[in-house]
Amino acid sequence: MSAEISLRDTYGQTLVELGKENPDIVVLDADLSWSTMTHYFRAKFPGRFFDCGIAEQNMISIAAGLAASGKIPFASTFAVFLPGRCFDQVRMSIAYPGFNVKLVATHGGLSVGEDGVSHQAIEDLSLTCSLPGLTVIVPADAIETAQAVRSAAANYGPFYIRLGRPKVPTVHDESYRFELGKAVMMRQGGDVTIIAIGLLVAAALEAADNLKKEGIDCRVLNVPTLKPVDEAAIISAAADTGAIVTAEEHLEHGGLGSTVARVAARHCPVPMEFIAIKDTYAQSGKPAELFERYGLTAKDIKQAVHTVLKKKG
Amino acid sequence: MSEASEVQKTNVDPAIEEGSLSVAQMVAVAKKLRRHIITMTGKAGSGHPGGSLSAVEIVTALYFKVLRHNPDDPRWPDRDRFILSKGHAAPLLYAVLAESDYFPVEELLTLRQVDSCLQGHTDCRLTPGVEMSAGSLGQGLSFSIGVALAGRLNAQSYRVYVLLGDGESDEGQVWEAAMAAAHYKLDNLVAIVDNNGQQIDGWNRDVMNLDPFNKKWQAFGWHVIEVDGHDLNQLVNAFEQAKSIKAQPTVIIAHTTKGKGVSFMENNLDFHGKAPNAAQVEMALKELE
Predict the structure, then answer these.
(1) Does A52 touch chain B (CB under 8 A)?
(2) What is the pLDDT of residue B111?
(3) What distance in Å separates the CA atoms of residue A274 and residue A258, rounded to the nearest whole number?
(4) Closest CA to A52 of B173, B162, B176, B139
(5) How many structural domains comprise chain B?
(6) Topology agreement, domain A5-168 and domain A184-312
(7) N or C: which end of chain A has fewer CB within 10 A?
């Protein structure tokens, strides 16, 4: 596994490349450009960068106005504020009219760590997936992030992309090609499928490696496009392996687990287990400690596989 | 009127009379718009006539005197933009768009019906000439900033006009936007506040006091003009004056009467979000003959 890379950094650098290629790309931030890494873009294209100050609602509706006038705005802040703070603006100004705005939130999930509950976005996927017309993407590593950001710029319509704060391991190799709306088979396997997003993809691969040693053959699916989700890949996983474990850095309600369960229940019901934050707020702590406390580690995934295989019988 | 008030009741500059309607013609159009508002909300059985009637002269002056627009090409890139932020005044916008030939006047009678292009609150995907989907208050000024910034980036000369309610100005986002528009020095942006003094629960001063309203805008860095919002001369002059203001946005605080033009609707809160019944429609139309 190669060196760990910050997805925020990849995002910021990809924006600069896009800015060079397309003069209609503009970037908005809400006083967090050194955290979201949009400052790279500001340095190169100061005239196309708008710092809206600590006013996220205003930023989102400004982005809508820019998009309505032919620009391709990327608007960024922390995931607790986008969509949390400005959900109505995302709904009314962007998703409902279908404007071409790219919402890229950083510091998603528990891996924010020590800042605590106020800064841990663990409900953003539930909120964004609930909005008709909004495409929702959760990249797993830097290679996927760069391509997902490019895909958002190239495809008309509103997008939400969730990135985390820490540096993360690379799970794809350079030959990887992100395809909008497509799940990615990370491992072939026939006994059970682990479906994961974001940081949990690396944990799922680790769990699959460990289970292999016990003779359990796991399929691992990465679902970078959470909405619209790749239903065919989920149905095949259910049909081929007969059991599913989902894994996400999010509340159990309304994210990956809910999405997969809905597809499986309709087309091919199988036993399922859910690695996610249960119905609770977390607390301050180091990301690794929090992942352990709230059950988001490779060990937890492995245990869930054992549980679901018992149900499968 | 305050110290910010600069517009006197004067005759319209002859230069702005060219190529558009005379004041007398606009007075006639305004009456037509009022009739449309009464008829369509009456037919729909719901809607917001009060805050539509109060802003009739504002949109009449814009669509028939001030705006460069082309009903045959609603998405003309260089058009001046009119953005309705107080989306519940949708009947008003639909009426002026129909009278401007964006769509047939007959469409107005489909307001709020299933499959109509005229939703209860504006939907920019469905209605030709509607720039923004509104109905959740407080977002239009921010949206207009985005449109104005894009115009500046593209070196386009279009101007952006956005209509807000006074009650709408309770929303914090309005003041986030007020701060930002001045910060970005958007002199291609004009906000008009339909200052009818009322909101759903009562008079603004009782529900949530906005005063000193003009001083708030001034303090946020705006050029402030106050006018009688039912006086077409004053409105047209104010829009002209705004064009000469550089490096800051302009707000026109238009003092209006909710329900204007129909005696039993004026300043009557019942008609904020309630349509006239058949008898009331008949009475109202009689007054508007």
Answers:
(1) yes
(2) 98
(3) 9
(4) B176
(5) 1
(6) yes
(7) C
Q: Best mutation site among B124, B127, B149, B184 for testing chain A: the one with the most A CBs within 10 Å?
A: B149
CA of A178, closest CA in chain B: separation in Å? 31
| Fold topology of A184-312 | Rossmann fold (3.40.50)
- The fold of the A5-168 domain, in CATH, is Rossmann fold (3.40.50)
Residues B133-144: tens digit of each pLDDT: 999 999 999 999
- From B147's Cα to the closest Cα of chain A, the distance in A is 5
* Cβ-based contacts under 8 A for chains A and B: 107
* Distance, C-alpha A199 to centroid of its chain: 9
Question: What number of CA atoms fall less than 13 Å from residue A3's CA on the CB side?
Answer: 2
pLDDT given at position A313: 84
Q: What is the pTM of this model?
A: 0.95
Given this model, what pLDDT does residue B19 score? 52
Is residue B238 a part of any domain in this protein?
A: yes
Contact A67 B131 (CB under 8 A): no
Residue B4 lies in a domain: no
Q: Per-residue pLDDT for B9 more than 50?
A: no
Q: What is the CA radius of gyration of chain B?
A: 18
Tell me which chain B residues have a C-beta less than 8 angstroms from the C-beta of A92: 133-136, 139
- Could you tell me the CATH number of the domain that includes residue B281? 3.40.50.970
Are residues B142 and A73, on separate chains, in Cβ contact within 8 Å?
Answer: no
For the cut 50, the answer to whether the pLDDT of residue B255 exceeds it is: yes
Report helix, strand or coil for B200.
Answer: coil
**A104 - beta bridge partners?**
A76, A161
Say how many Å lie between the first and final Cα of chain A, rounded. Answer: 35
Mean pLDDT of chain A: 97
B135-161 in b/e form (b: 16+ CB < 10 A) is bbbbbbbbbbbbbbbbbebbeeebbbb
Q: Give the residue on B whose Cα is nearest the Cα of A46.
A: B153
pLDDT digits (tens, 9 = 90+) for B182-224: 999 999 999 999 999 999 999 999 999 999 999 999 999 999 9
Yes or no, beta carbons of A71 and B150 under 8 Å apart: yes
Read off the pLDDT of residues A128-143 as tens digits, 9 standing for 90 and up: 999 999 999 999 999 9
The nearest alpha carbon in chain A to B156 belongs to A69
Q: Is B192 domain-assigned?
A: yes
Tell me the ipTM for this assembly: 0.96
pLDDT band at residue A2 using 50, 70 and 90 as cut-offs: low
User: Does the bond joining B91 to the residue before it have cis omega, within 30 degrees of 0?
Assistant: no
Residue B75: inside a domain: yes
Q: Which of B4, B70, B15, B3 is nearest to B237 (CA)?
A: B15
pLDDT at B24 over 80: yes
Query: What residues of chain B have any CB closer than 8 angstroms to a CB in chain A?
Result: 77, 123-125, 131-136, 138-140, 142-151, 153-154, 172-173, 176-177, 179-180, 183-184
Domain boundaries in chain A?
Answer: 5-168, 184-312
Would the CB atoms of B131 and A68 count as touching at under 8 Å?
A: yes
Range of the domain at B67: 14-287
More confident residue, B1 or A92: A92
User: CB count, 10 Å around CB of B185?
Assistant: 14
Whole-number Å distance between alpha carbons of B179 and B173: 10
